[in-house]
Design a protein that fits this description.
Length: 358
């Protein structure tokens, strides 16, 4: 498993700043790492960068890598006069800037306001699969649980200088892309590839890199890539996403039926509800299709993957970390608490900078 995290680049005062080219030049000048992954990479806007961990099997190793990646990105940002903040969206009204890249400029030209406003940060989890058929089995199994993963990670309650009333407004902004969101069951790898070919045939998206499903087969690695989560304020919450996704994948390959009989139209409603209230209200129970308190639905997820977690040695840690998230709240809850203590937009970002490095 591995984790990719997107971060805002902000001034020491807490304002998003377009210094990604400088940060990336500094990263390119560092000694190369022979292992795969572990890079600081470009994102769509100059006000953000992305990090990735190396593939690994051990949870503690992954947590150390996530923290190291955050520290490295922040050190590079400081050398460029900035810091990194793990926020799903900037709270301020920002005129963001596309990176100097031909593909990025084509996306901006083709998608207009959707692209202009797309300054959001997610957390992407990769888990290895043997082939496309196993990957699709995992994708189809994940479908009813992706909303719960979003609720646990939600970390974007503000947008353009206003409180949105959502725990994850990033997911609402991201949902404007034509290929975003939940999918219908695919059934097998051949069907998945046919769907991707049909999407590309429309001429709407540039390439398969713009297939923005909540979970997809990676275009570059033999992995399932789960993209539904906001970037997590707390590094351990990012690892929680990875551990849960791996456990869901392990459960998928041993569970019949592989496909949950829930229509994509219904799943979109589940996802919207998770984005709205996160872990502080009701979520939709995958077992009943009806609202239940978030803690109960999180408990359903834990029970569903309990055996896989136990076999990986992750059960006790996951129980503790889920309890921590439910008691403390996700990033959205923490941001709203800072607001209640009097933090304005810039002060909120500065506090997020500090927590990002814990």
């Amino acid at each position: 498993m591995g984790v990719e995290e997107e971060f805002l680049l902000v001034t020491p005062d807490g304002v998003p700043t377009a210094v990604a080219p400088a940060v990336l030049r500094l990263a390119a000048a560092e000694p190369s790492d022979p292992r795969p992954g572990g890079d600081v990479e470009k994102e769509f806007k100059q006000e953000q960068v992305e990090t990735s961990t190396h593939p690994c099997t051990d949870r503690d190793d992954l947590l150390a890598q996530v923290r190291d990646g955050r520290a490295r990105a922040d050190a590079l940002a400081q050398a460029a006069g900035a810091r990194v903040a793990a926020l799903g969206a900037p709270p301020q009204d920002v005129e963001s800037t596309v990176i100097p890249d031909r593909r990025a400029h084509e996306i901006r030209a083709r998608f207009g306001q959707t692209a202009r406003e797309q300054l959001t940060c997610g957390c992407h989890v990769h888990v290895a699969v043997q082939d496309d058929d196993e990957g699709v089995r995992v994708l189809d199994h994940l479908r009813p649980w992706n909303a719960v993963l979003l609720a646990l990670s939600a970390n974007s309650p503000s947008w353009s200088g206003s409180s949105t009333g959502y725990a994850s407004y990033r997911s609402q902004v991201w949902g404007r892309w034509p290929t975003s969101g939940p999918t219908a069951p695919f059934g097998d790898g051949a069907t998945y590839r046919h769907v991707i070919a049909d999407l590309l045939r429309t001429g709407t998206v540039l390439d398969d890199g713009m297939v923005y499903f909540d979970a997809r087969l990676s275009a570059h690695y033999p992995t399932v890539e789960v993209r539904v989560a906001d970037v997590c304020l707390d590094a351990a919450d990012a690892v929680l996403q990875a551990v849960l996704v791996r456990a869901l994948a392990e459960t998928a390959v041993r569970t019949e039926p592989a496909v949950a009989p829930v229509r994509a139209e219904v799943l979109r409603t589940w996802t919207w509800r998770a984005a709205r209230s996160g872990v502080t209200g009701d979520l939709v129970s995958p077992s009943t299709g009806e609202p239940r308190p978030a803690a109960d639905v999180v408990g359903e997820l834990l029970d569903h993957v309990r055996d896989a977690l136990a076999e990986a040695g992750d059960l006790e840690w996951t129980e503790r970390q889920l309890g921590h998230v439910l008691r403390r709240g996700n990033g959205a809850v923490q941001q709203l608490a800072w607001r209640a203590q009097g933090a304005d937009d810039d002060a909120l970002v500065r506090r997020a900078v500090d927590v990002t490095q814990l």
